[in-house]
Amino acid sequence: MSVTESDIPEVFFSDGWITAVEYLVSSGKEGTVFCCLAAPHTGHDRLAVKVHRSRDHRSFKNDAVYLSGRAMGVSLDGSRGLKSSGMPDRRLERAVTKRSKRGKAAIQHSWINHEFNTLQVLHQAGARVPEPFTMSGHAMLMEYLGDADGPAPQLKHVALERQRAVEMFTGLMREIELWLACDRIHGDLSPFNILYWQGRAMVIDFPQAVNPHENPDSLLLLERDIRNVATYFQPFGVVADPTRIAQELWYRFMRGTL
Ligand SMILES: Nc1ncnc2c1ncn2[C@@H]1O[C@H](COP(=O)(O)OP(=O)(O)OP(=O)(O)O)[C@@H](O)[C@H]1O
Ligand SMILES: [Mg+2]
Asked: What is the CATH number of domain 152-255?
């Protein structure tokens, strides 16, 4: 079943965040994004609503890689934030491992809470990610990157001259470093998840982000993210060694000197 406007939580309207849905921005594998008109007191013209697909229709490739090491002490009532400490719920962990109905529901809430929580942490740290405002059920409300003419283009569709490409690549490496200092690796970074807005790169789509203290595949995921970005910038004249960059960052992360 596809996600429609009716899946946008009523509370986003009744709590005075948005007044109307303007248009559908994207309907992808994992999430559907709508551009909404913001209530005037929010100080924004538009806000983005991202609705995650229901658990039975999601298709996260190899979700075990991302869930590995993630604390699954999630609340099933949709309350905010993934608990990463506290008493582990062994029955819930077993349900997750077996992918039972309850386990799948926990994973679903985990993805949503996790993306919202990650955006909160990174935005507070000054990262160039959309500001998250609130979440409810399977949906979250965040800063809209775009204007009346449409959403910001994905970096994939932007042509850059060399000097600008070098600056943007360097800036993105600094972002990756900042995320790592906040104990986050994106895990699915690509020019599709980077939007080009007001001359700068903004990174989106964090549900699969991993904690490098907990996930055993962290260095591989970090290097893959860096390689995906480097490969995109290569035709614009950016020369980089993703393995070396990843290893240097990882070394500083392990030493606590980021
Ligand atoms: N805050 C935002 N402002 C403007 N556009 C956005 C925003 N967030 C997402 N989008 C648009 O919606 C698309 C899908 O968002 P996102 O990548 O977060 O979801 P997804 O679950 O990965 O979907 P897909 O499977 O299509 O990648 C993005 O590529 C982008 O074009
Ligand atoms: Mg995406």
From this structure: 1.10.510.10
